[in-house]
Write a structure and sequence with these properties.
With 193 residues, the chain is of the alpha/beta class. Helices cover 26% and strands 22% of the residues. It has six helices and nine strands, in the order E-E-E-H-E-E-H-E-H-E-E-H-H-E-H. The strands form two sheets. The protein has a seven-stranded mixed beta sheet with strand order 5-4-1-6-8-7-9, sandwiched between helices. A two-stranded antiparallel ribbon has the order 2-3. Strand 7 and strand 8 form a beta hairpin. The two termini are 30 Å apart. The mean pLDDT is 89.
Amino acid sequence: MQTENPITAIILAGGKSSRMGQDKGFLMFQNKTFIKHTIDAVTPITETIIIASNKKEYDVFGYQRVNDLIEDAGPLSGIVSGLKASQTRYNLVVTCDVPLLTTEVLMLLVKNISDEDKIIQLKTKTHQMPLLALYPASCLPVLEKSLLSGNRKVKIALQNCKVQNVVVDSCLEKNIENINTKKQFKQLDENSR
């Protein structure tokens, strides 16, 4: 299912996981780590994967890993670092804490690629999802400037970029839910049985 446009997947795995109490990327769900679920979802779209994380433990997966440009500066720093390392015009930014993510959902973003450079992000009825989005390389200077000026919020940085929302059908919303707390993880586990 490789796409006609070369795409790099940038997997964000640099979070502190403070609410979970342990590294979310290595949580086990259905005999696979969370990050392996993410890798499996992006691989049919691209084999070019960058893991944005300062944690060397992620080297075990065999993909390029880049340190955050600014440590502990949140996902914006991981996005900027990933875009700096990428060699492609299009970049699929995904977070490692969405274990039910599917290739089908990510293809909703890919199908909206056009000649116009814009960030294409998933959106539910209530939330925009800039951490499940397609970023053009051309937005790097704007995002980096925002980060270096002290802003660490992705949504604020995106205010200076052209953004298109792709609304996710309610039946697919469970596939884009990120798991942040032990309670959510327990519910995920129980619902999968």
